[in-house]
Amino acid sequence: MSNLKYSNFEEDNRIEAMANHTYPGGVRVDPMPITAGQDVTILYSGLLANSGADQVFLHLGYGDSDKWEDTQELRMEKLGWGWAKVISADDWGRTMNLCFRDSASNWDNNSGHNWSFQIHNG
């Protein structure tokens, strides 16, 4: 997961389309299902974004929801629709787990459940 991709989010119509759909907890992932080798866009407009966070970080890991491996903390980009990050989904067959924190160390972990997505192999 070290090959992070950056995008001009403001010109990406896909991001706007993602923002126009309501999802529990304000987390949107595109594309779904996630296929190994794809760039995946994560858009967050949940609790921290709605509380006026000046910066949001994506906390990302793989494996069982109660035992994350290969964790990373990635700075997200502020948009008119929330916070966004593009990552590369390289680990097929594994579960990708997400939660979020702000610069004041407030966390949004979906009431302790986090957000989990299976990465498929083509």
TrEMBL record:
- Which GO terms of the molecular function aspect are on file? starch binding
One Pfam family assigned to this protein is: CBM53
> InterPro entries from the entry?
CBM25, Ig-like_fold
Instruction: Write down the superkingdom of origin.
Output: Bacteria
Q: Where is the Carbohydrate binding module family domain?
A: 37-120
List the Gene3D superfamilies: Immunoglobulins
This protein's name: Putative carbohydrate-binding protein with starch-binding CBM53
